What we know:
globular, 6 helices, single chain, four-stranded parallel beta sheet, alpha/beta, 34% helix
Amino acid sequence: MASISIKNMSVSYNKGKSYVLDNLNLEVKDGEFCVFLGPSGCGKSTAMHCIAGLLHPASGEIRFGDEVMTEGSGKKKTFVPPQERNIAMVFQEYALYPNMTVRENMSFALKTKKAPKEEIEKRVNYMAQMLSIEQLLDRRPAELSGGQRQRVALGRALVRDPQVFLLDEPLGNLDAKLRDQVRYELKKIQEQLGITTIYVTHDQTEAMTMAD
């Protein structure tokens, strides 16, 4: 796992005429659950996408532990691409592969990395048990409820054992009762695994309930 350090990060979509994020500084400790809270358009997802490497900030530095992910600007800029940052992301949309079973969805990234078959099976079974979806492993997404699909999406991300876990309003499509349940389970799993987590939401109750 890793801490996250952001120093003097700015993001502009119009070559510096105005800034979505202006001189952001943030320290997230190793294993900490940090929540970005605010209304739509305030820059929550923009900051997360910079951490993920999906966006290039205009300036500033991002580190995971002692390793530089993004630094500087112009030709001298250091930039580690998303696939090399050992991160996992979950969005509001589940984005599961409809033609694959739950087991195949959860193991896809590990198979792509050519992990040993025994290791894949062990990780998938362990995460399915933690998320209480072990009885769903041979079903396809169309056969699942919204809450079950979201658990599969979480499991697919966590099974990779990332050093940083990024969640962009992942419970937005769930009804209030189910959202409370999955929120509790997600926080419990994050504490057990000790993964450094950034969580984006506009729900103040959700932020105050989950954040360290």
